[in-house]
Specification:
The protein is of the alpha+beta class. Helix content is 30%, strand content 26%. It has two domains: 42-158, Trna Endonuclease, Chain: A, domain 1, CATH 3.40.1350; 163-243, no CATH class. It contains seven helices and 14 strands. Strands 1-3-2-7-8 form a five-stranded mixed β-sheet. Helix 4 (163-173) crosses helix 7 and helix 6 packs across helix 7. The radius of gyration is 21 Å and the shape is elongated.
């Protein structure tokens, strides 16, 4: 069932989405901008079929404790990065249909992600590399950026992640689940052991058998309680680990 919202004739952008209760809402974006789009259900499905060229799937987000969809590995990597970002507190994939008039015809676009930041701000994200943007898609991205400007959201069009950064995030993401938090004694010993900075393997081995301590260490790195330079080189035994800003998200 769709709850219709009065749409002024001068509305530049319309939005249609389903809230967390499954109710379909539509109307002027400038009237609905403060809805919880980070909880919206996808407005379209993620199809899977034989000989498919893209790779859709679902990512379990440690940030929101639920599955979030993606339609390609590029989208998955961006979703992984959002899950790692301490400023991100909510996210949803394909969260809305954005509609606008162009050349006297209605057009629509479903952005890849809506993100809620810790300060309450909203971010709309489209995932597409620079060399794969045909003119019609470029027009849609320009319209999405304009819509975000109207309501005070950020707009980002992003592509592939840096190789070293993405490899390190993929590794740490394996330990994002709370089950890797580990024993409190091991956790405390790791935090104490790395307080002045140590090579990764040295610090982990000093606390317990690496089979026990390394999963907890990687979880702490994912949560950014401990940190290292994830852009410099692929994680290895000599990687220097030190205390981060601390705290749980």
């Amino acid at each position: 069932m769709t709850a219709a919202v009065r749409v002024p004739r001068q509305a530049e952008f319309l939005v249609e989405f389903s809230d967390s209760a499954g109710q379909r809402l539509s109307g002027d974006l400038t009237e609905l901008w403060n809805a919880r789009f980070e909880d919206a259900a996808p407005v379209r499905s993620f199809p899977s079929f034989k000989k498919q060229r893209n790779f859709p799937g679902w990512w379990w987000s440690a940030t929101v404790d639920r599955l979030v969809g993606f339609e390609s590995w590029l989208e998955r990597d961006q979703l992984m990065q959002l899950d790692f970002d301490a400023d991100v507190v909510g996210m949803a994939s394909q969260p809305m249909w954005l509609r606008w008039r162009q050349n006297n015809r209605w057009r629509r676009h479903a952005p890849d992600y809506f993100v809620r930041l810790a300060d309450g701000g909203g971010v709309v994200i489209d995932v597409r590399p620079d060399d794969r943007i045909p003119p019609r898609d470029a027009e849609a991205f320009t319209a999405a950026a304009r819509a975000c400007e109207l309501v005070g959201w950020q707009y980002r069009r992003v592509g592939a992640l840096d190789l070293v950064w993405s490899r390190n995030l993929r590794w740490l993401s394996r330990y994002r689940h709370p089950r890797h938090r580990g024993d409190d004694d091991v956790r405390s010993a790791l935090l104490d052991g790395f307080r002045d900075g140590l090579p990764l393997r040295t610090g982990a081995s000093a606390v317990a058998d690496p089979l026990v301590s390394l999963p907890v260490l990687f979880h702490l790195l994912w949560r950014q309680v401990l940190v290292t330079d994830l852009n410099a080189a692929v994680l290895n035994s000599a990687t220097i680990v030190r205390p981060g800003p601390g705290g749980q998200r």
